[in-house]
Amino acid sequence: MQPDLPLDDKKNRRGIIARIRGNFLAGLIIVAPIGLTLWLIWTVVGWVDAWVWPFVPRAYHPEELINHYFRADGADPISVNVRGIGVFVFLIFTVLVGWIGKGIMGRSFLRIGEGFVERMPVVRSIYNGVKQIAETVFSQRDTSFDKACLIEYPRKGIWAVAFVSTSAKGEVRQKLMDGDEIVTVFLPTTPNPTSGFLLFLPRSDIKELDMSVEDAAKLVISAGLVYPNDKSRPSEGKG
What pLDDT was estimated at residue 169? Predict the structure, then answer.
């Protein structure tokens, strides 16, 4: 039977384990974002390549060109995975389409094509929906949220972070306008801010925040764990 370790030795062993665990967690905080970002970029690039290359003639694929110019006669074929060229081809193609689409000829062809699509019931709905989403996401106009704010939701006394998009317009404004300005507010869900609720509220019912929209989005995504700065974090240990 082994004798019990002295109390000091036990404390030293626990201290070493605690330091190793602390260093591991600190390293994980550094490595995880970098690794996940690189993995996401690598995955997206591979997905774009896989989508683009079937439209490119086989003779112009990187592997075929390398074997054509660098393989010796009678040698085994050279197998190489060149990622990223498909993304470059996609960018060139998209820029070319955009340049053509801005011209008179391109706009004419686009109107003719959209005219055919409008005659197809199911295809028309899909095309119009995707087009509206693309115009909203990729438009160069200022379509971002104006301010971050707090609203009482789902009941009085409970506050949630939301985003003010614009003042209400059209029929919504006419039906709800009763002295106070009506604003359009998007209430995101946590931790996925791409889903949420569209609310129309009197401006007096919202409390605008000084933090930026980006900082408020971080607060929502992190479920309240990441505050934009120390001044925004409530004081701990104060009654």
Answer: 82
pLDDT at 149: 94
Q: How many helices (H) and strands (E) does the chain have?
A: 7, 5
Measured distance CA(46)–CA(41) in Å, rounded:
8
CB atoms within 10 A of CB 146: 15
The domain segmentation of the chain, as residue ranges, is 147-229
Q: pLDDT-derived band of residue 235, with 50, 70 and 90 as boundaries?
A: very low
Q: How much of the chain is in helix, strand and coil states, percent to nearest 5? A: 55, 15, 30
pTM tops 0.90: no
Classify residue 168 as exposed, middle or buried by CB count within 10 Å of its CB (0-12, 13-18, 19+): buried
Neighbours of 99 (CB within 10 A): 10
Instruction: Give the model's pLDDT for residue 89.
Output: 85
Query: Could you tell me where the beta strands, DSSP code E, fall in 89-158?
Result: 147-152
Please say whether the structural domain 147-229 has been given the CATH code 2.30.30: yes
Question: Which tokens in the block code for residue 81?
Answer: 């995975």
Bond before 154 cis per omega within 30 degrees: yes
